[in-house]
Amino acid sequence: MSVHPVAAVLRGRVIASVQAYPGEPLRHPETMAQMARACELGGAAAIRCQGLADIAAIKGRVEVPVIGLWKEGHDGVFITPTLRHALACASAGADVVALDATDRPRPDGRTFEEIVAGVRAASDVALMADCATIEDIRRGVAAGCELVSTTLSHGRAAAGTAFDDGPDLPLLRAAVAEFPEVPIVCEGHVHTPADARAALDAGAWAVVVGTAITHPTTITSWFVAAAGE
User: Fold this and answer.
1) Distances (CA, A) of 203 to 146, 163, 168, 215
2) Fold of domain 5-226
3) Which of 20, 23, 125, 196 is least buried, going by the fewest C-beta atoms within 10 A?
């Protein structure tokens, strides 16, 4: 199996997820671009970000690959939910576009596979399948996505694969065992350097770290809770 050049440079590396949402103090494309550059200087191999303005601003600031997505809504499929969203992310400058790879219905009526095909027909951008289950991972691999991630797995683990508040290592190990040559990315609840190391030791191609690097409000709350305030 040949590995896409963007995926190849991520092997064994950390991807920083740089995101803020409406109402949050850091919610501004320039702030996100500065945060992304700071992460790049710290050694991040790529930046994962959401929203067209943030994708464009970050692409203009960093030299590492940009994984772009567009979140719309909060329920069902909200990570790059339609073909229109995916192509817009590519046009904004994303090197990789992340898509929800579940089998849930999408606003435009297309299936995941139809969106992948639509992107392939219109763009040479690489694709990342955001998955909740091993079935989703199989779907992403079958569709030919260059990267497949455990992004959506938390709260949806299969029976007998319970895990704590860290990354979903049971799903990761199952995916790596079934698809040893596919770039399987660990994302979700990677809160410490030890979590990241554990994911890589479990076979992750790369590890996405978001909140623990780029969300100071949450990081502060962890310390406050530990202090017993």
Assistant:
1) 17, 17, 12, 26
2) TIM Barrel (3.20.20)
3) 23
